[in-house]
Amino acid sequence: MRFCVTHCISYLARIQVDFMCGAASMSSAGMELQCVLTFLGLVWVARWVLHIVLDVVAALRKFVWARLSKDNLPIKYGGKWAVVTGCTDGIGKECARQLAQRGMNILLIARNKDKLNNVKQLIREESPGVETEIVQVDFSHGRVIYQEIARHVEGKNIGILVNNVGVAFSPPKKFMEASEDEVWGHVNVNVASVVAMTQLVLPGMLARGRGAIINVASIFSSCTIPYLGIYSATKAFVDFFSESLSWELRGSGITVQTLRPGYVITHMSNFAEFYRKPSFLVATTKTYVTSALATLGHSGRTTGYWPHGFQVRPHTSHCREVQMSSSNDRDVFACNKVN
């Protein structure tokens, strides 16, 4: 490539000299330059095609090959217990169910005791022999809750931590319409919980030299989202923190994964009709979690579900609000950004 560029520049210089001196035929130099530029174009196309092929191979490995094998999670990640935050609805609840079905004991952490007991009973019915414990805390209360969580974590070999708990405006609203409690709730739930839970669990994983931390961010972490600005910003923190932690823990035996889901049918997103019906881009929690858990150990940063990858376009930074016929404002947001 370097030789071709040099060759091209030399021909341009020759054309300029010939023109100034009136000595040589422009057509000959022009044809030679055309050949050089054609070659450069072919190199660019080949590079573009190679990127596509590599992306397809990576996607097949991540979303197809990974699902053909079922790892023994307690053995692979060095602990029988999985901790799941925000586990009473949506992605967190489905993560707890599917991890239990794969032999993990589950420590369920959320704020609603009745819902916690319901999930606990569901897991016992679906996965006999699996141990479950519940911790009722409200992550929006901040630092004071972690002593209670630490008491339940102590003495358990935790193989997997799923930092899933999160909050968002539903329906979306302007920043100045948010209450002080809502603002601090985003910080304490979406940001502080990820750091604090990791700090509680990571030392035991490092001592065993194995473990997995799954941090649930969002595809909205890729760009600014009007009316959901705090949410997208806090999820960007989760994304950046996960990437940094993964680099720091390289070679330690600890897997750090960032999940960046797109549209999934959950209570958090039921403000818009678009989110309530499954489609190619809108996944049920079961479909999403089945796909996402299969990528664990195969991809460090992923949407978790291959159709959501179409919502993340390379070399694009564009975010638009989509007005829905069912509402005058703020219903659905579409986001595309560098992956």
Hey, roughly how much beta strand do the residues contain? 5-15%
Q: Any idea what the radius of gyration is?
A: 25 Å
At the first level of CATH, what is the class of the largest domain? Alpha Beta
- Please, how many helices? 9
- Tally of strands: 9
Reading side by side through the largest sheet, how are the strands ordered? 3-2-1-4-5-6-7
Average pLDDT across residues? 82
Give the biggest beta sheet. 7 strands, parallel
- Helix-strand makeup class: alpha/beta
CATH architecture of the largest domain: 3-Layer(aba) Sandwich
Calculate the terminal CA-CA distance, rounded to whole Å.
Answer: 27 Å
Please estimate the helix content.
40-55%
The oligomeric status of these chains comes to single chain
Description:
The protein is an alpha/beta fold and 339 residues long. It has 2 domains: 2-59; 72-304, NAD(P)-binding Rossmann-like Domain (Rossmann fold, 3-Layer(aba) Sandwich). The protein has helices spanning 2-21, 26-68, 73-76, 90-101, 113-126, 146-153, 180-208, 229-248, 285-294, and strands at 81-85, 105-110, 132-136, 158-163, 211-216, 254-259, 301-302, 318-322, 332-336. The protein has a 7-stranded parallel β-sheet, with helices on both faces. A two-stranded antiparallel sheet has the order 8-9. β4 (158-163), α7 and β5 (211-216) form a beta-alpha-beta unit. α1 (2-21) runs antiparallel to α2 (26-68). The two termini are 27 Å apart.
